[in-house]
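Page 47, continued from p. 46.
Same chain as before, 1037 aa.
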Amino acid sequence: VDEDTGEVVSIDRNEVLLERDHTLTAEDVDVIIESGVKSIILHREDINIADYHIIFNTLAKDTSNSEKEAVEYIYRQLRNTEAPDEQTARDIIQSLFFSEKRYDLGEVGRYRINKKLGLDLSFDHRVLTKDDIILIVKYLIGLINSKAVVDDIDHLSNRRVRTVGEQLYSQFGVGLARMARTIKERMNVRDNEEFKPVDLINARTLSSVINSFFGTNQLSQFMDQTNPLAEITHKRRMSALGPGGLSRERAGFEVRDVHYTHYGRLCTIETPEGPNIGLISSLCVHAKVNKMGFIETPYRKVENGKVKIKEPVIFLTAEEEDTHYIAQAKVALKPNGEFIAEKVKARFEGDFPVIEPKDLRYMDIAPNQIVSVAASMIPFLEHDDANRALMGSNMQRQAVPLIRPEAPIVGTGLEGRVALDSRALILAEGPGVVEFVDAKKITIKYEVSEEQQLASFDNEFRTYSLIKFRRTNQDTCINLTPLVMKGQKVVKGQPLCQGYATQNGELALGRNLLVAYMPWQGYNFEDAIVISERVVREDVYTSIHIEEFELEVRDTKRGEEELTSEIPNVSEEAVKHLDENGIIRIGAEVREGDILIGKITPKGETDPTPEEKLLRAIFGDKAGDVKDASLKAPPSLKGVVIETKLFSRPKRDKDVRSKSKKELDALKNKYSKQLSDLREDMIKKLTQLLNGKTSNGVKHKFGDELISKGVKISQKVIDSNLFPDKNIYRDESNYHVPEEVNLIADVSLENWTSDEHINDLVSQTVKNYLLKRNSYAGDFKRERFTLEVGDELPTGIVQLAKVYVAKKRKLKVGDKMAGRHGNKGVVARIVREEDMPFLEDGTPVDICLNPLGVPSRMNLGQIYETVLAWAGHKLGKKYATPIFDGATLDQVQHELDEAGLPEYGRTYLYDGLTGDKFDQPVTVGMAYMLKLGHLVDDKMHARSIGPYSLITQQPLGGKAQFGGQRFGEMEVWAIEAFGASHILQEILTIKSDDVIGRAKAYEAIVKGENMRKPNIPESFNVLVHELRGLALEITMD
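Result:
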């Protein structure tokens, strides 16, 4: 047998007896025996014939007869040239496929390959192995022969979450690679020199990459802080967009669609309505992301038809739960975990079979497992159409925090958890008694044992500052008020305050109102809302909004701008509220056009010479050469100034420097005293704990023995061995922090004495000491930075002034309101309380909603909620009805009967205007309604005289630019339909871009003359010039 070719050859005649890859017959066997060949090489026969055909055909076409030839052939294919020698060719293949320098599969890559190919290689194999390649070929052959299945690209085992940490890690890689390149370049440029790290390494390379990642990345977003739910939802959001992801335009229907693996992982309901639908989703309530980046959801184990109730839940990825039958969470069980029913509804991949309990492997842990936080806040979600539930969960995030929020009567039981997890509240850290309470702070005396007090460096009193009128990113207001009273006992985890859309530790986004589903004189046509005057009068939906205005003071070519209250050509009245820095005083009422920050800027036509600058500085002649550049209140602003801030660059003159040095010395002394007192306190505590105890050997982290074994510990021993250098401080170069050089920070905390309890206390005391010391160091660094560097302002900006104006917004006609079921509408009429329809006992309803908004929208959850909440209101009860496991119709009716209310809440109402009884009964109850962030005051806008576009000379668009309303093609048709030609001509000329005509029209109005004939609009001239640009001569006769 020829070793190279594998062919059977007669040695005597050197003749090919049988070709390679020839299929053997009986005659061939005779030929081989006659030729006296001892052995032949055969292909394995255990491979399936169909699978073998592809390999057979490939080998038949392959011209290479040896490994050497094959290697050289691959080199030729890769490099398009002949290989210099066999070893070079081998090295190229080796580095391409099997070298860690070339690529890295990572843990996730290896994990996925192992799962797909059924391998069990360790995660250290970060490159492909020969086994991988063989099995990949085997899988591809199986695919062709329909024995294997193609991966589903939308299955969550093939999609993973790239967390912030992972993305930052890859950015660090980019930054460090750049830094390495610069270091190499610098070393090449400066040859044969001695280098210090400072000469070669520039940290800015790395920091600029990190800054641009956080500053410009598509997924680095401004936090949505409208209310606590918006905040928590934004933090749990998943996006398929961004770098390395999809783009809106190219994402098809399949990517956006709900997949069966989303169950319990990504919310099937909460997603935006616009072009991002399905690309941006929310993490489910109980889901978590594992270290590989795959989303897991929890299940209970089921064995032999019995649920393991007492065992902890297990988290499974989408791949791990495939091929298993999973029961629903609300299936009835016996106390021992057995199923009551003989057949159970189950879930198997994308199907829902009914099976026997013995076939089950897992069981859901909660009915709300399938949806996100926002969607699981909607009671009776199971009775709502999914489209409306989507709107409901999205609109809850837009609810404005009210002055007096109220928790819903009918909730889902998750309100407290959301309020807690949003971190909006302050919670008690342990049992204790309230020592002091006012609007701004709460002091609690905690119950601390002697041992805890000994290990701690703080006293038992803890003071919490409450946030007062803080502006959020969306201009809503966080204002916390205390929930506890002086002398009250508190327990661990108890909320101490409320506010910012919370009440008594529960999320409270809106208010409960008495609602009637009935039309009211046509004013609630098409989802409009009729509301009682009582709601406005009693500030039910009043909210506070805080707007921030800022003005920069720049150093211009013509001189420095200046903040001042002495503004040229402005009346005394206009500047009466400004201080010497030109900033409006706190408490001033502000209206449209008022000056908020006074600023003057030099307006010289030419740059002043140095001599002129000097003369101006001496004689102070500024007024004639400056113009007013003040910040004025924009249209529709009406409020009160609640805070002002002024940031300045520190001046570098002699006086300032000497003052700064004194302050710095005082700061260093204060810090040194703090450290000294802390050290003395620490020595006392350790002495108290260890005095008289025998040492087991107190060691340094690096092995040196500081207190020898068998030594009796005393204050002197502790002082001299653990705190030897009492007065040595070292200066850290960056902020010169005078830091103690003592050994306690580097001591091993294990096994100081033979008493384990004492050892634990010592360990806790040392840890607390180091925490306290670090806290002091942090404070020192911050104060030092403020003194040395001052406020960090961008280059070219000398000062920055900010003014915060609080606006009180009552409910108005035009404001948008919504329930939790996607039932949104706009307030169309505010009706006097006595004119609203009233119940038989004389109670007027608060709000009238159109009943036609319910059947076609199929969001019946609102009716369930309304009726049950009415019963709760009457009985003084609150209900938690978890989604998919909520109250049934019978239970709701039982509560109504108990409250003595009519069936299904249908009762006769009386007309408030006439006192007559309405013909038909009306559904009445309590609805939980929210006021959304789309307020009419922010949208209402009108223009008289304002800015024009430079090119078209037409008014700008939008409220921000003080623009006009667009009069488009369809509006022109409407006017044409009426034949109102003069109005149309006015709109298209003097009200828009007829520059001469509009000036003449204004003149005519002022003088009381007749209007002149309009001229040619500017847009026509623009068109003519564009056509001329295309070399088409246009003339007008």
